Amino acid sequence: MQHFYLSKTAAACCKCERRTFKLLSNLQPSFVSLSNKKLYSSQSEKKPAETLGTTRALDPLDIFGENKDERRKEKEKAIKNLKIGFFFIGASLMMVLGSGLYVLMDDNYYKKDEDEKDMYPVRLFNRGRLAIREFFESMRAPSYEKLLPDPLPYPYIQPPYTLIIEMTDLLVHPEWTYTTGWRFKKRPNVDHFLEQVSQNYEIVVFTASNGFNVYPILDSLDKNNVIMYRLVKNATDYIDGHHVKNIDRINRDLSKVIMVDWNADSVKLQRENALVIPRWNGEDGDQQLIQLAEFLNVVSASEVNDVREVLSYYKQFDHPLEVFKENQRKLLEMQEEQKQISGTLPINKARGSWKDKYLYGK
């Protein structure tokens, strides 16, 4: 019985082994096919990469026809230079801000009129705002306070009146052509005007143009050196987008100063001292400078104490010299009538109502 039991057990074990073997046999093809599939997949994945690498090796140029490696190196170099530039810009800004902060903290000039009750950062902010405002004001103001030196002392001859005249479109006119480029046309009767006016006026050319343009033109225009002073762009005040001539800095008695200009915005600070006449556009038959010389000589010959009284009257007219010419004609007619009654009356010796009639048209 015992032997039979063992044989039965051994038979059962044999059956288990056969079943296990069959099971493994059934599983083996699937495992092998899976392994083959994985192997095939890995080979298929490697193949496109190898093909792409081969394509890159065969085609080193990009769509622009440039070498890709060179473009990459140039791009890296540009990025490096950009970083260096940003570093220096940042360092410069830090130095400027640090210097400005140091000045605001130690300079007593910017501490004026500040409230000690304010917090320290607030006071620093107010000092910085004051410094920035004064900087921009200095950029708008002339380069110097006195535009002209002191009048000539005795025994030198100082003319009794000062004439401040614009150069562009009053004495010369800029023109441009394809053949010559920019050039300046001399106004008719300029030489006669300067010669006549220089006898009783200190002539000052005051223009908003740059000096490197103005000085060569005046050197060619003023052959007799009757123009005593030349003021250019850096002598003007920049106000509301205009370069304005501020004759408060002229260092002369304003009751004896006459400004002649065609632009009312240039003389708006002292309009009572200005004679605004039409702009010259280059016409050949112009005679306006002769009329202007006659007007100025009459003012000086009449020994006007305050030229602002005369100029205020002509300020209301668009063509003041034409009005002056008409007043002169009326006065001459009155003088002819007077001659028949009481003899001659020289124009330059006219006084009282005669002078008023001649200058003011009253």
Summarize the structure.
It is a single-pass membrane protein. The chain has 362 residues and is an alpha/beta fold.
Spatial arrangement of strands, main beta sheet: 5-4-1-8-9
Q: Structural class of the secondary elements?
A: alpha/beta
Q: How would you sum up the major sheet?
A: 5 strands, parallel
How many beta-strand segments? Answer: 9
Amino-to-carboxy terminus distance = 166 Å
Query: Percent helix among the residues?
Result: 40-55%
Mean pLDDT: 77
Give me the Rg, rounded: 47 Å
Give me the number of helical elements: 9
Shape: elongated
Order of helices and strands: HHHEEEHEHEEEEEHHHH
Strand content of the residues, in percent?
A: 5-15%
Q: Unreliable segments (pLDDT under 50, ≥5 consecutive)? A: 1-12, 20-25, 27-58, 347-351
Transmembrane segments: 82-105
Family: Belongs to the TIM50 family.
Function: Essential component of the TIM23 complex, a complex that mediates the translocation of transit peptide-containing proteins across the mitochondrial inner membrane.
Subcellular location: Mitochondrion inner membrane
